[in-house]
Amino acid sequence: MVDAAITPPSDVDTLAAGGEHCSAHEATGHHGYAGDAQALQNRLRRIEGQVRGIQRLIDEDTYCIDVLTQVSAVKSALDRVAMLLLEDHLSHCVVGAAEAAATSGDATEVNEKVREAAVAIERLVKS
Amino acid sequence: MVDAAITPPSDVDTLAAGGEHCSAHEATGHHGYAGDAQALQNRLRRIEGQVRGIQRLIDEDTYCIDVLTQVSAVKSALDRVAMLLLEDHLSHCVVGAAEAAATSGDATEVNEKVREAAVAIERLVKS
Amino acid sequence: MVDAAITPPSDVDTLAAGGEHCSAHEATGHHGYAGDAQALQNRLRRIEGQVRGIQRLIDEDTYCIDVLTQVSAVKSALDRVAMLLLEDHLSHCVVGAAEAAATSGDATEVNEKVREAAVAIERLVKS
Amino acid sequence: MVDAAITPPSDVDTLAAGGEHCSAHEATGHHGYAGDAQALQNRLRRIEGQVRGIQRLIDEDTYCIDVLTQVSAVKSALDRVAMLLLEDHLSHCVVGAAEAAATSGDATEVNEKVREAAVAIERLVKS
């Protein structure tokens, strides 16, 4: 039985279906993080292992402070993943949209990309 | 291949071996979170699933902002786990040591427990 | 003109009026931080100066990234103040209530103190 | 007497002297936040008042948990200031540099602006 009520609103499967794209990605046929996708996956697999390690710690009745140390370590590792994603978003989506705007004279997309980035950063700062 | 260099210093396996205990736990034969262990494990299993979901999002070239939203959601879910562990530590280890000190007149352990809790909280605030 | 809408719900003046006390404080006639009150005030005065420094930076049209660095520095300085207050709360109010409970057999106050501390820590982690 | 040891490395006066500028700002003769400078100053003045309010709370021996609530409120108010500065940096400095790069073909400055923003965001997430 899973206590679904506690989890922040997020639906991985729906998101995975597709959604938004930025023109810089469409031009190249892949997302900005495509180049670093392997590095991100390595980090995420290691994080997944750390989360399983915490489950084991609890099974083994480990001292709560030691478990807390691991939880903080996983949060920091997730921050590194977030920073890689964010820097990628800035250098590909935001910069790509700004370059497009320089040619087209239409700043709508670049403004939207900046707004999205700001919202994502705020969410990260609060999490 | 795992990029070990990026991970904060933490060694789950060593910790699991044992380490410190607090007298309140020794008295009852289990840790404070024993009662809530199942709820913690449910949360951690769900977090593990969320981390795997993020890996899938990256495989599927999902828009970076949507991936970031998931990373923030996992961080918030870890904060809930940390808060449960911390409240448990306070109500069992710290309070237990304080009660023991009231009888024995020796405040050494309770001071140490408070110090440990403060260090863990600071680490959490920074992560 | 002050943009009141942006500020989190907080009313310094109402709080200052009095409110809750813990029995450990009542016994000694002062709060746990009384001993460290001067150190806290020194830190807060320095933080106040840092906030004024940021106002000056904006007046002088300083590069935004340099202003951001100062904002992060003030947040970290506030975290130090928060940690001092929290450690004080744990070693005086929580421990004091636990010792009282050891004598009286009534755990109502200590449970309440732990709950309050947990709520304050969560708020801090999110801010 | 100021306890200098506790403060993160930062030197408001040196920074105020000048330092880096981005070409978008040089073109217009002011920083991106110039338009919002008044709103930022209002927020900062209110934050300065909140910090003074916390000093008063400590003078009046206010219950530590109530003081902690105020500290968290100030941290959240600083986050709002940081987000305004950051969004400004993205929409002016980063976007400006990207537009310049679209014309000149030289991506050096835009890459540097993105890097700086990423470092500032990471510092904010950790503070």
UniProtKB/TrEMBL annotation, chains A, B, C, D:
Q: Name one GO biological process term.
A: negative regulation of DNA-templated transcription
Q: Can you name one GO molecular function term for this protein? A: metal ion binding
Going by the UniProt record, its keywords in alphabetical order are:
Copper
Write down the InterPro entries for this protein, in alphabetical order: Metal_Tscrpt_repr, Metal_Tscrpt_repr_sf
What's the family?
Answer: Belongs to the CsoR family.
Protein's name in the database: Metal-sensitive transcriptional regulator
Q: Native species of this protein?
A: Pseudoclavibacter endophyticus
